[in-house]
Amino acid sequence: MSTWTSWLAQRAELRDERGTTRTIGVLRDDATIDLAGNDYLGLSRDSRVVAAAVAALEEYGAGAGASRLVTGTLPVHEDLEAALAELCGQQSALVFASGYAANLGAVTAFVDRDTSILLDEHAHASLHDAARMSRAPHETFAHNDIDDLARALSQQPGRSIVAVESVYSVLGDAAPLSELADVCARYGALLIIDEAHGIGVAGEGRGLAHTLGIAGAEDVIVTATLSKALGAQGGVVLGTPAVREHLINAARTFIFDTGLAPAAAAGALAATNIVREQPDLVVAIGRHTAQISRALEISPSAGAVLSVPMPTPAAAVAAREQLRERGVLVGCFRPPSTPDEVARLRLTARADLTPVQVEFTADEVRRAAAC
Predict the structure, then answer these.
(1) Which domains, ranges and CATH numbers included, belong to the chain?
(2) pTM over 0.85
(3) In what residue span(s) does the Aminotransferase class I/classII large domain sit (predicted)?
């Protein structure tokens, strides 16, 4: 057995011992209720979104054909960027191939030898990976702790970037964005807010930064994915025109990547327009989140994500499998994927659930979690 084969076997055995082995497979069908995915508004199958994607596929082809800096920029990209900027109350936007790529590009493009990065300890893996890739000094501060952030900022010798989420992806809690913006302004730091779980969900769908009046500020950058509430694919960075111009010239995940596929861009554009025109969809998320959280006796969520603590990773896996047999799909998050090292079931209270589905799934999750 080769050295690498032996190493792979050891890693697999360790994952099995810890109960953290991941698998993939086709799970969704018409008979299941999907509370595991991120299609918060149910727009991925909305007829208007699908029709827009199909029309773009027929007009432009399956792919953009090149990077955006060569010949890969299409009218649908520019229309999407304008619509996203309008929805989020921003001056400009730049679309990336994924939300992960958007975060990598946004962080690394603003780093030089005088820059340090401070991340909320619960921030998404893409932000932590961006900090590592930037090669800049970086550290974490206690989750949503303004005093700890201020302490860390006071000790930085040069410029600082602070990276947070607006609504956190595992616990579903909101960041104190106004206070974060204030302390960043006090120390001259750039605040990067990942609104992956805020766009289409918080603040009439326009995001938490817009709701709190900090969208468009010169020292605030917002990132988001187009694959959750907007039901498509891709990512975006929103900010001032100067931010956009800098990203075009410095963000490697934009410069060296093929442009977002036109079907995904058109689908995201249609979804963005739906969010702006149908605020009742966003209201439905809040209603379903409140109903399910009351039934499960768990903390309410600032977005669409609900988190049910489980005693062990094995118990979480067993509950997930029991629910799957009953036709309900839920997420199963286990360390090290959870920021607090607690195994959890993760539910998304989608806007398109029927009242009967909401009641049924809440009852089933309560039974499974109690076993």
Answers:
(1) 21-45+279-370 (3.90.1150.10), 47-277 (3.40.640.10)
(2) yes
(3) 33-359
